[in-house]
Specification:
This protein has 15 helices and 22 strands. The chain has 434 residues and is α+β, with helices and mostly antiparallel strands.
């Protein structure tokens, strides 16, 4: 039987796109508490089923596939530009394909304005009317209002007309930034991308007997299984070590490990990898916010996922991506060289502390890859000192392997500028072998 939380999510998912949602209405409709309804709506917002807009409320939107995450809905545009809806409220769930800046003559503007686009324009009423007739939504900059005719037209076509106080250039930059951030999120591998779902996994229940573990082992040859209660919530994990020399008529709850470490579908793969290495575990149950079992993730899943993510082309670049591109190695003496670019600096124009840590980490990562075929997870990074380094300065980074074991590495890192020592750090890393 599904939980109240799941029932609310299923109810929201079944609502027509564009429906308005409120905590009080859902609590009354499904006979649940307002607190339960609120938590479920927040979960639906996280998974992209609904969007909450100031002065509008919460509406059901079309859930986007991850590969199309760079496309924004009009509801998201309102949140980005802090806008208000003047008309066409029922179309807020729709997705825009492109945006057009209306800074040209009307005839030329309409060549680029098509169905599914968003025209960013000032108080040019004729342009607004023509855009709506062409199937495009409107974003009016400068805080201007529009005519009642345009508002009625927007309602008839279900195309939003949005107004915001920013100028056209600022609005375009804000939307571009939002799309760029979405591209970065698109590339981050999360547990949801790789875990094995409930239907394809084998589990035991807390009231099963130890004999059930033996039967399942004979069938699958797996040595560890999640343990659930009859509400499908994770209550433990049982492994071969737990059942050695145990009577086969004992219940699983008597021998299992309680309060197991779990992951959520939204957890990043890097975080899951760190947890599994740090805790020395081979399998983690995947759960939702109510601790209901969704599937499992194994160490092999994590390794494959990390390898796959490293082969993906980078579309939205982070600071780490830039550092990886700019860091050049000299195989003869083990040094890494890079120039301090403007993106690497802080507000006073010197090398950022966080970028310094990223440079050290990447140099260690590349050094270890020459020695071991695997990935590293930082266990500890200690920066002993760091001098101010200006824009345009060339840095030489020298990692020295102090200890290298099968699962552990200790690296001393020195950073030089014009032969002067400007930074020193110590890195301890756990290794994930492929």
């Amino acid at each position: 039987m599904s939980t109240k939380h799941e029932q609310i999510l299923n109810y929201i998912e079944a609502l027509p796109i564009g429906s308005k949602i409120s905590v009080r209405a859902i609590a009354k409709e499904l006979a649940v508490s307002e607190g339960t309804a609120y938590r479920a709506i927040k979960d639906a917002q996280t998974t992209g089923l609904v969007s909450t807009i100031e002065r509008v409320g919460t509406i059901r939107i079309e859930q986007k596939r991850k590969e199309n995450i760079e496309k924004l809905t009009f509801a998201e545009v309102i949140n980005i530009v802090d806008g208000q809806v003047l008309g066409g409220r029922t179309g807020l769930h729709k997705t825009l394909n492109k945006f057009v800046i209306g800074a040209m003559k009307l005839e030329a503007m309409m060549k680029y304005t098509e169905k599914g686009s968003l025209l960013i324009v000032g108080n040019r009423v004729k342009a607004q009317e023509k855009a709506l007739n062409a199937g495009a939504a409107i974003l009016i900059t400068g805080g201007f209002d529009t005519t009642d005719y345009v508002k009625n037209l927007a309602d008839r076509y279900e195309l939003p007309v949005i107004s915001c106080s920013y100028d056209t250039f600022t609005v375009a930059a804000m939307i571009n930034r939002a799309i760029y951030d979405q591209l970065i999120k698109k590339e981050i591998v999360i547990v949801d991308d790789i875990y094995t779902p409930f239907d394809d996994t084998h589990v035991l229940y807390d009231d099963d007997l130890v004999s059930s573990w033996h039967a399942l082992y004979d069938q699958t040859k797996h040595s560890r299984y999640p343990v659930l209660n009859r509400d499908h919530q994770v209550v433990g994990v049982v492994t071969s070590k737990d059942i050695i020399n145990k009577r086969i008529d004992l219940k699983i709850e008597k021998v299992m490990a309680n309060q197991p470490i779990t992951a959520k579908a939204s957890t990043s793969l890097a975080s899951a990898a760190h947890t599994m290495v740090w805790q020395g575990i081979e399998m983690m149950p995947v759960v939702d916010d109510t601790n209901t079992f969704k599937g499992v993730i194994s160490r092999q899943d994590v390794i494959k996922g990390l390898q796959s993510s490293q082969r993906q082309p980078q579309i939205g670049e982070t600071i780490d991506d830039l550092i990886n591109k700019q860091l050049h190695s000299d195989d003869t003496d083990g040094y890494f060289a890079t120039e301090v670019t403007p993106q690497m600096t802080n507000q006073i124009g010197t090398l950022s502390y966080g970028v310094f840590a990223s440079l050290v980490t990447e140099a260690c990562n590349q050094t270890l890859k020459k020695e071991k075929t695997g990935d590293m997870v930082i266990e500890n990074l200690s920066i002993f000192f760091m001098k101010p380094v200006q824009i345009g300065v060339m840095l030489n980074i020298k990692p020295d392997l102090l200890e290298l074991g099968r699962k552990f590495a200790k690296i001393d890192v020195q950073v030089f500028s014009n032969d002067e020592l400007v930074g020193k750090a110590m890195v301890m890393a756990q290794l994930i072998n492929r």
